[in-house]
Amino acid sequence: MEGTLLVSEIMSKNVRTVRPNSTVTEIVRKMNKFEIGSVVVVEGEKPVGIITERDILRRVLEVTLASEALKAKEIMSAPLITVSDQSTVDEAARIMVDKRIKKMPVVHEGKLVGIVTSTDVMRSHARA
Hints:
Blueprint: E1 17-18, H1 24-34, E2 38-43, E3 46-52, H2 53-61, H3 72-75, E4 83-84, H4 89-99, E5 103-108, E6 111-117, H5 118-127
Parallel strand pairs: 1-2, 4-5
Antiparallel strand pairs: 2-3, 5-6
């Protein structure tokens, strides 16, 4: 696949994670601290869900639920859509378009190794 860009070449490797029982308050604090728009929910090293700013807006703030009482597992998007670190950027882009998602965890043998965003994909195509 010479000349083909892989997801592993454009993904962010320092993925911020939370556990299924993390509270929404803890999640929001982490997102604010690291100035990020999503966190991946993991059990051990296996990603099981993702929480984005939109999830918090729709599932917490819109319905005015107490963020201290809600857990990650109650608001995460699941089942989780992931991509292999050995997939091409074009394959990742197709999945993101088809599933209408902007952030996608990257896995290697089922373990979380990174995250790829629509911005990463656009940036990689701009370099080409």
